[in-house]
Amino acid sequence: xxxxxxxxxxxxxxxxxxxxxxxxxxxxxxxxxxxxxxxxxxxxxxxxxxxxxxxxxxxxxxxxxxxxxxxxxxxxxxxxxxxxxxxxxxxxxxxxxxxxxxxxxxxxxxxxxxxxxxxxxxxxxxxxxxxxxxxxxxxxxxxxxxxxxxxxxxxxxxxxxxxxxxxxxx
Length: 170
Prior knowledge:
The protein is of the alpha/beta class. It has a domain at 22-70 and 113-169: 3-Layer(aba) Sandwich (Hypothetical Protein Ychn, Chain: A), CATH 3.40.1260. 34% of the residues lie in helices and 15% in strands. It has a 5-stranded parallel sheet. Helix 1 packs parallel to helix 4. The radius of gyration is 22 Å and the shape is globular. This is DsrE/DsrF/DrsH-like family protein.
């Protein structure tokens, strides 16, 4: 007499991933294409009800400097994403032309200038911080910063504020 042994299948319950509740975005590049991804991600997070912190360091500080924030350009030299030879990108005025064209396309999509974007993010509850090391390295003064900067903090402070966050480096 043969007996069939049935093995019970183990069914593992797969938990749905927990939704993201907090993001901390580090912006370290000071070009249009280096700053806007962080701004768009922070704004998108706030629109989804996700807490958002922006930390500007090194050349990303250009985005929070009153004199530079709305004058950011696209790097055309050594930028393979531009799809042009470096020599062509080095022609005087090419960076300004490329920046003008990019801003024109952004206007068509109703993407605001940096100053307005930072204001929107702050108004939506996002927090904006400047890196103390970069602030001191570039010999900046508090009056150089846009009013949306909540505080000038150390990297350690940033990590403390980012506890439990998804950290994104742009």
